[in-house]
Amino acid sequence: MHHRQFKRDLGSLLEVFRFIDDFITSHDIAPSVTQHVRLAVDELFTNLVRFQPGSSEEMSISMDAEGDRVIVRMTTQGVEPFDITQVPGPDFDAPLERRDERGLGVYLCRKVMDDVRYEYENQGRTSTVTLVKKFER
Amino acid sequence: MFHVSKEKDGRVYLSGVCDSSSADTLREAMDAIGGSCTIDFGGLEYISSAGLGILLATQKRLAPAGESLKLVNLGETIREIFLLARFDAIFEMEDSSPG
Prior knowledge:
The complex is a heterodimer of chains A (137) and B (99).
Chain A: E1 2-6, H1 13-26, H2 32-51, E2 59-66, E3 69-76, H3 104-112, E4 115-121, E5 126-134
Antiparallel strand pairs in A: 1-2, 2-3, 3-5, 4-5
Helix pairs in contact in A: 1-2, 2-3
Chain B: E1 2-6, E2 12-18, H1 23-31, E3 37-47, H2 49-62, E4 69-72, H3 76-84, E5 92-93
Parallel strand pairs in B: 2-3, 3-4, 4-5
Antiparallel strand pairs in B: 1-2
Helix pairs in contact in B: 1-2
C-alpha cells in the first residue's frame, strides 16, 4: 500500500499530485486515470482546508490497486462531519447570471470516480472518504 | 507550476497546473480582462474547480455588456472536465486554435 501524511495546507497539493503520479506510474495504470484521481483528491483536500481550517491534524492518504480498481482513502481526524455523497449538484439549468461558481468541486469528484464512500467516526471525529476508480492497463 | 501570459495577439495563454493553490494567479489575470477575450489552454496540464469557478465568474461579469470569453486549444482531459461542468452551454469552446 502507498501511504503518506500531508499537511493540511493548499501548498501541499503539488506533493499530493506527485504521490498520486508515483502510484499510477509504478502500477502500470493508464495515465488517463491520473487526472481523474488528481481532480477528485484535489477537490476533497481543498474543501477540507477551506471549510474545516480549525484542526492542525494532517491528512492521511493511502492508495491501493485491487483488481481493475484504484482505491484511494483520505482520512482526517478532528473534523466535523460533512457527507460529500449527500451534497446536491449544481443547478445547470440556471441562466448564466444565476450559475453558482461554487459547488462544482464535490460534483466533479463524484462524476470522475466510479464510487465515492463516506464514513464518520464520532469518538475521534474522524472522516474517511474512499474513492474508487476503475482502470485499464 | 502555473503560468498566465497575455501575448501580442490579444490571447491569454495558460500553462502548467491550475489547482486551488495557484488559482489566485488566474483570478488576477481574469480580473484584468475588460472585454471579449480568447483563452488558450494549449499548455495547461490540469485545472480544478477553483479555476473553473474563476472562468465562470468572469463570464458572468462580461455578459451584461455583450462580451464573453472564448476557450480554445482544449486538450482531451480539460475538455472532458468542462463538459462535465456544462461549460459548453455558457462558453464558446474550440478544440484547436485556428492558424
